[in-house]
TrEMBL record:
Pfam families: NB-ARC, Rx_N. Belongs to the disease resistance NB-LRR family. It comes from Sesamum angolense. This is Disease resistance protein RGA3. Residues 5-97 form the Disease resistance N-terminal domain.
């Protein structure tokens, strides 16, 4: 869970400098310096999270350390929300300055800006101090650093599949409908010659990109619209041979002994030629266009209307793949977070148990800040806790 929360904070930080430049509001001095500092500390900590998560529920002190890390990551997110709100507010005040402060508008705006800057700068300084404490405590645990992948054909991440239990999902109905509509949209004119269009779902780790893609992949409207549906989990290593074999075997419904990329891609080209397909590439990380280009050429032989749906954490990846539409996936609402928590944590409980634990359960769900992965992880743990006091421990941490 810590990985998802830290990733969320890093994604938000990454967009701050660009937003300051675009909005032309110098709200915080040394924006890049402050953002780089926080990002550097979080990335250093993230390098040991694999080992920390393995030790989390065996060592109480590690568990508490991770909770402090998650809390400061959430607080970074909150400060960035406040920052963005202040930017919008100052822009409005600029446009309406004569109405807001008709006598001395410039002074009024200046002092508002200074007060806001000081408040946010003070909070950022507090976050830096907390991160330094967490960073120093990290060394006491002697965590193993996340190991690099020795074999380029091995991925450190679990392989996703297309199957999903729809009743387990909460809060993605609107996102699903929007994307289904985009995927079914007919191509016209010059786009007919451009090959399959790419649509990307972009969001931080743990936000539910794969889950949304699964919902779309199994939606009846999609099943009826596309002649072929193909699901491939790409993950952090873009292994061209493995991916091309996976696509080909999904199309032909049989295993392939081919090992050369040239043969695989030519066979793939022949197999999809003239057929309208949906290809889901889940969890794409590479920004290397040379790895994607051979696939793009082969996939161009599909029928007009073919689409590629990509899930990724990075807009840079989405742009590299020639995405025509980026769907930025947001956090779950408080209501949907609670519904998901209830579904996971209250499984098999009596009505009396539900009433007793409902209030504390909602508070715990709120602490997950709309991250479905965080809700599921905590919900799975709470499923085996029977008393209000035991649940309360997770709220305090």
């Amino acid at each position: 869970m810590a990985e998802a929360v830290v990733s969320m904070a890093l994604e938000r930080l990454a967009g701050v400098v660009q937003k300051q430049i675009q909005e032309e509001v110098d709200l915080v001095r040394g924006v890049k310096k402050e953002v780089d500092y926080l990002s550097s500390k979080l990335n250093t900590i993230r390098n040991v999270l694999d080992d920390a998560e393995r030790r989390r529920y065996k060592d109480k002190t590690v568990h508490n350390w991770l909770r402090k890390l998650e809390d400061v990551s959430y607080d970074i997110d909150d400060v960035l929300d406040e920052w963005n709100y202040a930017v919008r507010k100052l822009q409005i005040e600029r446009k309406n300055k004569h109405k807001v402060c008709p006598i001395i508008p410039s002074s009024c705006l200046y002092f508002n800006k200074i007060a806001t800057r000081r408040d946010i700068a003070k909070k950022i300084e507090g976050l830096k101090q907390r991160l330094n404490v967490i960073l120093n405590e990290k060394d006491e645990f002697k965590f193993a650093i996340n190991q690099p992948i020795d074999d380029p054909r091995e991925s450190t991440r679990a392989q996703s599949i297309s199957l999903v239990e729809v009743s387990d999902i909460h809060g993605r109905g609107d996102d699903k409908d929007i994307l289904v509509s985009k995927l079914k949209q007919e191509v016209v004119g010059q786009q007919l010659q451009a090959g399959p269009q790419v649509i990307s779902i972009v969001g931080v780790g743990g936000i539910g990109k794969t889950t949304l893609a699964q919902l779309i992949y199994n939606d009846e409207r999609i099943v009826k619209y596309f002649e072929l549906k193909i699901w491939v989990c790409v993950s952090d290593v873009f292994d061209e041979v493995r991916i091309s074999k996976a696509i080909l075997e999904s199309v032909k419904k049989e295993s392939s002994d081919l090992k050369e990329l040239e043969l695989l891609l030519n066979c793939l080209k022949d197999s999809i030629s003239g057929k309208k397909f949906l290809l889901v590439l889940d969890d794409v990380w590479t920004e290397d266009h040379t790895k994607w280009e051979p696939f793009k050429i082969s996939l161009n032989y599909g029928a007009p209307g073919s689409k590629i749906l990509v899930t990724t954490r990075s807009e840079r990846v989405a742009r590299m793949m020639g995405t025509i539409e980026i769907h930025r996936l947001g956090q779950l609402s408080d209501t949907d977070s609670w519904l998901l928590m209830k579904h996971v944590a209250y499984h098999g409980r009596s009505e009396a148990d539900y009433k007793e634990l409902q209030e504390i359960g909602k508070k715990i769900a709120d602490k997950c800040k709309g991250l479905p992965l965080a809700v599921k992880v905590l919900g799975s743990l709470l499923r085996f806790k029977d008393t209000k006091e035991e649940w309360g421990e997770y709220f305090k941490q």
